[in-house]
């Protein structure tokens, strides 16, 4: 009995010792649990740049008065060098110190592995803070955590201290906050304000999105013709536009800025939806007038075929979505672009209609540049309400750690103009999209009338030809009843087809009527 009690005591003591040891191990600092790793290297293991503390506010610097508020620069604390940090954070798919991407030209190699002279640019207000933080977090996690490019934030009003400190804490690069001068954010003197007001009221009655907003038109004009002239932007060669409430749902394993520079590209885009016809009713006519008046400024091998489905008679509403825009600022600062923008600006369509910066940029790069200067950036997982870009190929989604669904993908849908862009340029389509076709939806009223007249003339000609053939064949036909019965049956089939015509063209017309 005594022996049995001793055995139980020993067992309980051993159990308590084991439990105590486990508790001690759990309470020890993480560094103490890996002494061998620390001793094996010359220095303490390096912390990844994106996990460093981002304390801001210690180094404020004025860049000069831009309106009511000085530009503010908030620099990052001392960090690991860009080259060293990128080398330590390369994705597993990168080999031999190179970042790779598959583009429409084939395999692209980011061999230099260095930062470009570039920045992110966001036009925001203080009320956009949380939507902007979401966007910055996505960009930093998916791309900029490896590169630490600068961020420039512009506002037509003064930024609050809270906004500056909060937003800069999310940025891995230097943050710069500027106020837009009044002359860049106001209606020009040559605009008839009564006419502009009448337009806004008419668009409000028609329930056109942002149709009544004067501020929205200021924004479109600023993004079309002034953002690149901000003093802070003159320090950079390239820019990447980021808006609030966007999301990148795939890792971007290459540097788009380097893609532009090494391939001598000027303008990069990701999506190409259709514009609202009611907002750009006379834009195409103005562009054609410019083309006729200044032929020396038009690029010979341009991209204008992308913008029309009827040899230039009308605008098909295809445009590059400028909320994702990566471009060479030297183009926007060039005399050629300034001349083009001034021409459209003087036409007044920004205020008399509602021309947006997206169609204006699209017209400019399509008319003034050779089409080989345009770069499509695929597989970013970019999301901006309501459209989603998502790679259709499963292996691409896996490599990019994409958390989007190919079922929600917009880029290669029938409402997207990307298929037409590939067809115009003769590019091979990516896997899974070979059978998709661009479907034109918007057409001008004038084009519809002309097309209806052409179809009526074609139908009359076909009817006359059929009647002539029938008359000629009557003399050669047998008088047997069976043959006559077959001919009559065939005529009834044709008549039935005329009454219930379901050709692709008529399907499209019915679709347009339904859209209207």
TrEMBL record:
Compartments it resides in: Membrane
Pfam families recorded: Glyco_transf_15 (PF01793)
Keyword Cell division belongs to the record: no
Composition bias, Acidic residues: 472-483
InterPro entries listed in its UniProt record: Glyco_trans_15, Nucleotide-diphossugar_trans
Swiss-Prot/TrEMBL keywords: Glycosyltransferase, Signal-anchor, Transferase, Transmembrane
Low complexity bias spans: 458-471
Family: Belongs to the glycosyltransferase 15 family.
Protein name, as recorded: Glycosyltransferase family 15 protein
Taxonomic source organism: Kuraishia capsulata CBS 1993
